[in-house]
Amino acid sequence: MRRRRFLAGLGTASLALPFLAPGRAGGGASKPRRGPHGNLTLFLAGDVMTGRGIDQVLPHSVPPDLFEPYVSDARVYVRLAEEESGTIPAPISYDYVWGEALDELERMAPGARIINLETAVTDASQPWPEKGVHYRMHPENAPLLTAAGLNVCVLGNNHVLDWGREGLRETLRVVRGLGLETPGAGLDRADARRPGVLSLGEERLLVFSYGMPNAGVPPDWAAEPGQEGVNLLSRLDDAHADAVIRDVDHVRMEGDRVVVSIHWGPNWGYDVPDSQRSFAHRLVDSGLVDVIHGHSSHHPKGVEVYRGRPILYGAGDFLNDYEGIQGHARFRGELTLMYFPELAPSGELVTFRMTPMRIHRFRLRHASKEEAGWLRETLDRHSRSFGTRVREGEEGRLELVWD
Question: Does residue 366 contact residue 357 with C-beta atoms inside 8 Å?
């Protein structure tokens, strides 16, 4: 297969990435595949935060000690959730947290399943200093990830080094040991920059992951030669967009599909800065990137389709332990979405369906009619400026409409 190139006008070449063989799906991961007509349906989700309170109700738990300004025991988050929603049947099974999302995954049968894993998987005891919130899940709870048949856990985010470089090393060892791809963080700079690679027969799905300081990633978390860390994207300007394009171009081959996953922006608010749109558009304009998977916001934000390619500016949290925590109620962070973009063999978007869900007792269940209606109206309102609309679809799903 001949490698497709897009280097004109991008300046000097970036640090070369090693050639990547097709990825593997092991453990409980679903086997990536194409659907009818060669189309590829993806499952995309935002932040999956299975540490802290959720870890405390799983079969194995790290010590509950926290180093937050107001909460020093992770079991407080369990109590808040139970006061809000009812008793959580601890210890919960590994499929409990995914709840009704598992049935939806079976019905939609996506060819690949991708989440942002915003939790260190470690029992390391030393938190990163001067950082207010630290997430970790006991390594023996890692089967939680394979219970949903995941293929890719992107790690370019602001919690993967919460328990230091020792914690990151263990996270990589454990998650990779399940056969899952872990782009966005690594044992050194080259490792952190490698995409996740999934085989789709003769073609591949490549998933690149980046984390930004404006989403809380400390600059000193950046992976360096000989030092573990995150694949840091320091700015949203043309030069950095071109660097991402070079990373993609170095690995992408004819027929490959490409997802660029970016942890960017604040936790709350629907505004999308011009810098994010310009950055995303430049990636799509390269002809090398098919999906922009943006996350960091704790609630879903507007969705754009640009030149036939979907751009998620904020996928929202998918799993967290926030039930019962006061503040930001108007954003309804307990409501979340399962995203199912369907891509033609050319990479062009064919359909984009979203399934409304709700976090209840640390478990995903289908949103009520009222909750789904609120999500539809909110997404529709904040997507109009992008030229997209959100309508009711079949079986309680939402559908994106674009010109």
Answer: yes
> What is residue 214's predicted lDDT score, i.e. its pLDDT?
97
Give me the pLDDT at residue 223, please: 98
DSSP letter (8 states) at residue 188 = S
Q: Name the CATH code of domain 36-402 (choices 3.40.50.720, 3.60.21.10, 3.40.140.10, 1.10.1040.10).
A: 3.60.21.10
Helices (H), 237-389: 238-251, 274-285, 369-383
Tell me the mean pLDDT in the region 59-88.
97
Q: Judging by DSSP bridges, how do beta strands 203-211 and 196-200 pair with one another?
A: antiparallel
Contact 334, 244 (CB under 8 A): no
Secondary structure of the chain: what % helix, strand, coil (to 5)? 25, 25, 45
Task: List beta partners, residue 403.
Answer: none
Section 46-64 average pLDDT: 98
Going by their DSSP bridges, the two strands 291-295 and 203-211 should be labelled as: unpaired
* CA atoms of 195 and 184, how far apart (whole Å): 7
Coil, strand, or helix at residue 2? coil
